Amino acid sequence: MPNGDPASWLSILPALVAIVLAFATRQVIAALFTGVITAALVLAWTSGSLAALNPVSNLFLPALGTKNFAQILFIYLWCLGGLVGLWGKTGGARHFAEWISRRVARDRRSAMVVTWIIGVIFHQGGTVSTVLAGTTVKPVADRHRVSHEELSYMVDSTASPIATLIPFNAWPYYVAGLVVATVPVIPDTDAAFSFFLGSVPYNFYALVAVGSTLLLALGLLPWAGPGLRDAGRRAVETGALDAPGSEPLLRVETELDAPEAGYQPSLADFFVPLGVLLGVGIGPYLVWGSYHINEAFLSSTLAGMLTARVRGMPLASLIEGFLAGCRSMTIGAIVLALAVTLGFAARELGTASFVVSALGDWLPALALPALLTLLCMGIAFATGTSWGTYAVVFPVALPLAWALAPDPQFLHVCFGAVLGGAVFGDQCSPISDTTILSSMFTGCDLMDHVRTQIVPALSSAAIGVALSTTFAWFAL
Length: 476
Prior knowledge:
Strand content: under 5%
Shape: globular
Number of helices: 24
Distance between the termini: 38 Å
Low-confidence stretches: none
Mean pLDDT: 83
Order of helices and strands: HHHHHHHHHHHHHHHHHHHHHHHH
């Protein structure tokens, strides 16, 4: 809050306005923009300064003029967008889809299983997983009448959840930096990383969410909810992959799929850039324990261009395909810019701190894991970020858990509750980048995705809460 004042209930108003308008109007850009303007009004009211009414200098420029947003814009959107455009120009993605369809995805169920497998393989989390998995599986799923609502749920539910279960990504190191020295059993970074790994079995929401997507693929998910069931039935019976009146942010098949005449697509067009991406992104970690994600995306795009050029694609066509992919990211860039700005406003207003302080430390130990899950669900849903939620909650949650019950197993349960609860909120929030991008790259209307995934996600969260409470009972 301005001037160091404690956060008040007004701090949740901008996020609340954006979320309510997103659901009510289905116009996400308008909803996010209104949320930012509301934040400017709250800042002006709480600070008593008319200068705070200027959202450009106080919110947009500080939020967007950062290395993090430049990285999102240049690497994740332009490099990946350019690569997707190249795949459309070379026909590489479609060729891969046809290849895997002939060998693995022979019907609707097997196409959904392939989606789950690819979602697990691309386990980097966030924008990386959603863009890569969505782009890769969409042609296969479309061919076998998998609705875009089902597809976006599977891509979203195997993005951040799987990233908190498989340690070969940046998540454990980020969290480790937040929890070092918060409790006696985590004295240094190595201990923090080890504690993260030890908490994986207690990350119940992520485990149930990833398992739920596999059950959905197999047609065995009992808590799919009417939204996903109706979408699947519509796709099978009518061939309509989208609901009537839906407005996808990006129609990949029409905007990015214009193969060059006379060019013979090859699996090399698809696998060379993908191999470079995974090799540069994961290889250095396996050898030296370091990450080079930015370099991985840039190298992948250049590898895709070089492969196509060596195989006979004219340079002008390469540039045309690359630029087409970049142009297709424009709406996504606007949505993400507004979401990042709203997240910045939430930090300025102390939204997460207010929610944490409102909860207090009056709770019994047995109820703590469940309430930490619910708290993180609410904060991440309101702010659209799991990492931001971790930054606020972990430094408070672990000392509180240790004070209530100084037992490592109980601490693991609470640790997993924070991990899973924040992932739920991030996954389900309409202002989260993973939610936005998973709908974009599967061709789904954003609010259709949010509406249809909420039942299975809430069901998974409910099971996770029950399991964390049960394990807390045994630990105590």
